[in-house]
Amino acid sequence: MTPNITAAKTALSHLDVEENPHAIRTASRDFFWYSPVLKARMDHLLADFVVRPRNEAEVIEILKVCYEHDVPVTTRGAGTGNYGQAMPMRGGCVMHLVYMNQVTSCEPGRVVVQPGCLLKDLDAHCIAHCGHELRMFSSTWATATVGGFVAGGSGGVGSVTWGQLRDLGNIIRLRVVTMEAEPRVLEFRGEELARVSHAYGTNGIITELELPLAPAYDWVHCFVATKDFAAAMDCAEGLANEDGVLLKIASVYEAPVAKSYFQRVSPHVAEDDALVGLMVAPQSMDALVTFLTRRPELSLIYRSDDTDWPRNPGLVFEYGWNHTTLRALKFDPSITYLQVRYAYPDHNALIEKMRATFPGEVLQHLEAIRVNGKVSFAGLSLVKFTTEERLDEIIRIHEDAGAQIFNPHRYTLEEGGRQHSDQRQLSFKKEADPKGLLNPGKMISFDTPDWDYAKIYDYPSMTPKEA
Amino acid sequence: MTPNITAAKTALSHLDVEENPHAIRTASRDFFWYSPVLKARMDHLLADFVVRPRNEAEVIEILKVCYEHDVPVTTRGAGTGNYGQAMPMRGGCVMHLVYMNQVTSCEPGRVVVQPGCLLKDLDAHCIAHCGHELRMFSSTWATATVGGFVAGGSGGVGSVTWGQLRDLGNIIRLRVVTMEAEPRVLEFRGEELARVSHAYGTNGIITELELPLAPAYDWVHCFVATKDFAAAMDCAEGLANEDGVLLKIASVYEAPVAKSYFQRVSPHVAEDDALVGLMVAPQSMDALVTFLTRRPELSLIYRSDDTDWPRNPGLVFEYGWNHTTLRALKFDPSITYLQVRYAYPDHNALIEKMRATFPGEVLQHLEAIRVNGKVSFAGLSLVKFTTEERLDEIIRIHEDAGAQIFNPHRYTLEEGGRQHSDQRQLSFKKEADPKGLLNPGKMISFDTPDWDYAKIYDYPSMTPKEA
């Protein structure tokens, strides 16, 4: 099955097809380079061409033409994802949804939107039109698209209140186009949503999303400092368990993350200060102050509604989730990260154990999240990278201790997730993408069903590095 | 200290003073009669006069005049509370806040309101002006006042999401007038709120409240039926633990409560059906249906947005909290109730144990609530009343098993609560009500500091029954 690139390009030439090599190179990359492991393996990947559909009809046309000519299609939004989820493993077509950015409708509690809309623009639209905003979003809010977030994300800012994207009620409806001789348009709700959410566009292309909204508040961005890491965890978790206090994020940073990597926070903290980043609804600020007054080991060093800091530190969520890693990388290119889940109710003991295990090598960065109604922590630990072997060992030590790892140094859905196939995604891929052309190389169970996960999966059809 | 009623009435005669005996009798009663124990003790209580202030200045004047003439002042809203909290134990003045019902300001997330505003009117105002509504309210929403709810309530409809009124952030500010020679006007926030919230007006009169609001949705009222009581508990608790599903209430009724006492539900359930009452945001309805589809033992028998029931059952919350007791009382005057707290994480086992202990005598009615971030149940058990001794025994058996009882068959703050004095309320009463004239008889620690709680407290200065 050799792709006929030329035929596909010719057939699509009336659309917005990008042929500039520099632009193709840019559109062939996402934020895979957060991982030194993926950087070594994916840096060379390149699409043959990029096409930017303007509407669903053009998406259908692109999928139909590429199906006919056996051309792989890797769909992308802004390309801010990690895990190499938008990298064209076999070249071919990158379908860029930048033009499909319209908000179709919004009302309090609900929005209908196209996938290419930036999270930031979507929020601005919803706040202006109905006083609501997204329940959750990635820390790349300013540059990422809503379609990319749902296709690749699992949660983020807002998960401290609303749980994960996969939880019931956090996605209402997805409209999806299949890649067949005659592409079909399907509407998924309820149980069916799991087929295509967090599937990296491997089994269908999302052309419309219906999402729940939450009330928009003039969130107060806060930093709390403490010499005591356990007190910092207790601050984030305790606040998240205050049912009357509205939070959008509660992040914990072990010392010296704030001093070393948070440039505008650095002058206000010491080397040994742990930091808590918070977004608190204005009507909950009295409650926050009361909560902190009960814990003299905590100091509210910054609140955006009342500050004398000469330099505005900006949005607190742009210190959290994977922006922490990004900030650290700017100061120390050898830094990478892990995604860890510390399950309730033993999360704090497990975190302390991991903290004690890797002094100077792993720095704790935690995000308070709700999982099945209970507050616990997701870790996006900062790791001083030495070798792939040591990274794998660090992961193994975490797993042996009972921490779940979502390995961001893998490019397949299975290895970045729970290390086993998702039958709902797999069976829908067999139906919706019979030729296996949608974002190839990302679903092991489709390509190599008997894979045993003993080592990193090496997609056999990956475009080889040029000599 | 003999009250000079005549002098006080004369001094207040330019205000709206009620002298009609029938109206005084009505204003001297609340919903104490839910309890046969309180009915036997409080039915005779009668104020000497009723006064209805129009504003805070008149409140100050009334308190100053009554202080001067040693006249007790019992403040009331609509008088829908239980626990006899608005009953004039020593007669004197009942101050009725019916005219102080203005909404001062509202914005998304926050309202400022006078205490006499009905919860229903407050919600209507907020929904119309800013698209928000109260986070929580009592099932007597249609007739109760916001001041009475905060002065006497602990939570209610909405507590499944927002926890209790006493939780940080669920009250922002209270403005309070003291009863001294020169009454003071104080503003309480943060830690100070605990002095006067849930204090029955024993140590200050609330003249203004600032409360947080939640977004208003077109809540879908639902009933779910099941033959399996454990499945009904799991339904309410499981939904409350779904972080992406927005609930306003999740009530559980053991069979045959629905068949026997819920007139408009009765034709749609069998004698052996347990019932779950739910209010679900419209954007969460798909999630509800998905949740129920996973549990075939549960049947969605009613949803207000799509129903063929010939008779509208009305608002689901008017079946819950203490409306359950009210509905049962209409069919069986021998019914009374208990307020029980089943603490996480052993709540379900404890409930099943209590359910097995009192067959035919105690019927389980549960409300899912959040306590310190965890979902568990409050019980408002329906009790077939025989004698006070048996009622006390039932309470003791609950307590011995580990269930906490908030005894609604007592009229003091301590006995209806945690059986010990609240030092914050007591010390503020000593300061704000030095003559002990505010709602006398309701704070044991003020009147009888060495009380040992071995038996029901009998306020020595209660107006005696006439022979």
Automatic annotation (TrEMBL), chains A, B:
Keywords, ordered alphabetically: FAD, Flavoprotein
One BP annotation, GO: lactate catabolic process
Pfam family, one: FAD_binding_4
MF-aspect GO terms: D-lactate dehydrogenase (cytochrome) activity; D-lactate dehydrogenase (NAD+) activity; FAD binding
Top-rank taxon: Bacteria
Segments forming domain FAD-binding PCMH-type: 42-216
Keyword Flavoprotein: yes
Gene3D superfamilies, sorted: 3.30.465.10
Protein name per the record: FAD/FMN-containing dehydrogenase
Species of origin: Yoonia maritima
